[in-house]
Amino acid sequence: MQKIRITKQFNFEMAHALKDYDGPCRNIHGHSYELFVTVIGEPITNSDSPKIGMLIDFGDLKRIVRNSIVDKLDHALLLNKNAPDNLISELKKGFANITLVDYQPTSENMLIDFAERLKKELPIHIKLHSMKLRETVTSFAEWYAFDNE
Fold it and tell me: Which of 34, 41, 139, 149 is the most exposed place for a label (fewest CB within 10 A)?
């Protein structure tokens, strides 16, 4: 059987700030993120399956990515959990959706986090192949399984 890759695109709005960064991104700012998730595997050959010929139903992939990533981060503020406690507590007074992570919330680190989340949720016969996270019209980061084996 031949291997096939399929890709689904997701869009979400999120703010972040880079702790101790030496440029303007140290300030809270937001992006309209575009996330492209590509999975690889063999299409279903079981003639009794309503999904015959599919690697995975796009709707199922959408549900997995939304539940693992998009719904948690859309319209959130993503901050390093090592930000000053007084800053975090002050922000929580005015904003409900603050997500603290144990890394610098760059596009690169977000993709590493996303890869770990998705690998746990994908069906056993499907592998995460790659992801692309577009932060701006001209800037994006990419993650490939091949590079991380």
Answer: 149
Q: What is the mean pLDDT of the chain?
A: 95
Give the percent of the chain with pLDDT over 70. Answer: 100
Model-level pTM? 0.94
Which residue among the candidates 34, 108, 135, 142 is catalytic per the annotation? 135
CA-CA distance, 119 to 79, in Å (whole number)? 23
Residue 29: its H or E element: strand 29-41
Q: Give yes or no: 75 in active site.
A: yes
Candidate CATH numbers 3.40.50.720, 3.40.30.10, 3.10.20.310, 3.30.479.10; the one for domain 4-148? 3.30.479.10
